From TrEMBL:
Residues 1-20 have a biased composition (Basic and acidic residues). Residues 1-53 are annotated as: Disordered. The keyword Transmembrane applies. Keywords: Membrane, Transmembrane, Transmembrane helix. The chain crosses the membrane at residues 112-133, 148-167. This is Uncharacterized protein.
Amino acid sequence: MNTPGNDRDAREWAAQERARRAAATNPPAPRGSGFSRDFFPAGERSLASPQEAGDAAYRHVADALRRPPPVELPPDFAARVARIAELQTATAVTKSSRLKPLPRSSAFERRLTGALVAVFALGTAAAALVYGARVMAQLEALAGVQGLQWLALLAGCLGLSWSLGWLRRQAGHDGIARPG
């Protein structure tokens, strides 16, 4: 922002615009490797006034922005990128549980899982008996009786929706192709 008595930004902007226009009207011949010695040759580094030096510096920046960067890609760059993309896609697809069926659980694993679910259900029931009255009182104080009824209705709807989705997946009506 320009303030009275301080127009340094305006001078900088004007120098940048002069350099941009000069670079547009007199494009430089392509040269160099992109290093600073190519952008600032020794003859232009020692100009008479600071303004000329600033204009020359901005001119070199404008020239550099008009040229593509001096990057030499290997001849097989596109093939390498395609190969990397194929490998990443292949590993992402093979890790997908939708394409590969899960291995069958052994009878021991199924019994152990059932036992753990039963223990979890018993623990939940015990916690509800011990702490349920206090939790319900706090929820009732927080949401009111009608709010508590709405929360129960929401929990019931979510549980019904999730259980119906689980039943649909168990029946094989989820649209996933299974080997068989």
